[in-house]
Amino acid sequence: MCAIILIVKKQIAILLSAVTLAALAAAGYGAKTEYASAEEGSGTENSTVYPDFVSELDIGKISCYAVGDGSFAFASGEFLYVYNGGSRSLNTDTDGAAYYEYEGGVMDAASNENIYACEHTSTISTMCYDGGTLYFTDATGAAYSYAAGSHEPTAFTPQDGEGLPSGLLPVSYPVTANGLSYYVRDGGVLSIGDGTAYATFEDGTYSQVKVQNGSVYALRDGALCIIEGTSLDEITTPRAINFLYTDITHGETIAIGDCDELLGQTKDTQFAIVPAGQYVTEVDLSQLGGQYFVTGEEGTFRTEINNYALVLCSAGEADIIAIGDNTYITSPLGAKINAVTSNAPFEGAQLNYTAGLYSSPYMSDATLLKTLETGTTVSVLYAVNAEDQSSAAGTSLTADFCRVQYTAQDGTVTEGYVASSFLTAYDFSGEDGEFTDPTTPDDYSEDNVILTIVLVIVIVVLVIAGVAYLAYFSGAGKRKKNGAENKDNQEDKNG
Question: In angstroms, rounded to a whole number, what is the distance separating the alpha carbons of residues 198 and 210?
């Protein structure tokens, strides 16, 4: 009977499965899986690439400029560019020519669309810093002041020529620095003299010679240069200046790509060193439903010291890491360091509380594989404890973990990490093993089954009849004995 019931149930299940698959195919699902969907959505344009936040300023020819304390302002046509901060260093290009480079600065109003501070209504003609404020004039002769952070300048009107900073006036006189006089002659020739003799630079067209903080600046063929020399004999060719700026707004548009899938893949525990000075961006791994990572409160910054980090996944051109409770994305790190593992504290374990099974020894929505209920049993492979790692690497772990295998009722095995504090020892030897369906006998037939059922029924009827017969005659003997005893008692009463 049990075999018949199990066989019928199995046939019904197969039939229902076939009907369900047919319905899904008709609805257009087919064999499409979550994995296939992720693959379809991860094209080159959506690949995870950690940006290079440092770019070289390239605005073409500069029409005018201004130098302030820690700031440079440039104009090219109607566009105004403002560079703030940065430190200057002397470098050598591939041809052996020396040049200056400012790096570590930022651009006012820098964004993914543009790097200019504002777009004016007409060509900007002259500009200067005065009292920390940037002023400029345009082709119409009107003068304006620029407020840092504003995309539009604020106009002001000089009164009878007064109030106009001297730096905005046409330069018709030499500038002096280091005992030398510098001025531009007709045709853009730069002339330098000490009062007794003069020399000229003929390698370019020069304009707008200015002195700021002891340095002499000039435009040569529309590029900003520094002129050096303390005497006519020591005058060298002006050295060009390159400007490298940092735009951390690129951290707002880092594509997730296939990181969601990669974070959910169980992997061996690895650490990596994040060197000092590396750019990192804090990201919220609980929000991976969009196209871009959602940045955390720390945003994008450069690390000040070397840090050990837990590597959650590598996306080829980016690494997702965890340092303590926080998660970051950064450019690919160097050699990965395998975690120190220890023997499993017990072969089998049971969950004391409901807990997550994670792809990495880090608890987050992105690394969660399954939620295991209280009482669930797992096999323990090994342990990853914070105290077993180097002192620096250990700080990357928020807790001690065990790598385990969980077997579902359908036989599916999932491997991942569970916090050790949620586990207690469990002995699998007391279990009988997995249940298997009974095997149908080789001589099985419906006639045999019917005959067997009939015989069982006949036997049951005969047993019931026999029990009833015995019960009847046993009761009859008792009734006869009781009748005789009652007769004797009655005779005693009459006598």
Answer: 18
Asked if residues 154 and 161 have their Cβ atoms less than 8 Å apart, the reply is: no
3-state secondary structure of 374: coil
With contact defined as beta carbons under 8 Å apart, do 374 and 252 qualify? no
Q: Are 55 and 245 in contact (CB under 8 A)?
A: yes
pTM of the model: 0.64
Looking at the chain, how many residues does it have? 495
Apex 247 CA angle, 144 and 396, nearest 5: 145
Question: Per-residue pLDDT tens for 216-232?
Answer: 899 999 999 998 877 77
The owner of tokens 């090994």 is: 382
Domain layout of the chain by residue ranges: 54-174+211-246, 342-430
In whole angstroms, what is the distance from residue 168 CA to residue 129 CA? 9
CB 123 within 8 Å of CB 83: no
* CA nearest neighbour of 333 among 390, 277, 283, 274: 274
One of 3.40.640.10, 3.40.710.10, 2.30.30.40, 2.170.16.10 is the CATH number of 342-430, namely 2.30.30.40
For the segment 133-151, what is each residue's pLDDT rounded down to a tens digit? 888 988 888 888 887 666 5
| Burial class for 346, CB neighbours closer than 10 Å (0-12, 13-18, 19+) | middle
Distance CA 318, CA 279 (A): 11
Q: How far apart are CA 96 and CA 213, in angstroms?
A: 27
Burial of 191 (0-12, 13-18, 19+ CB in 10 A): middle
DSSP 317: B
Alpha carbons 449 and 136: distance in angstroms, whole number: 105
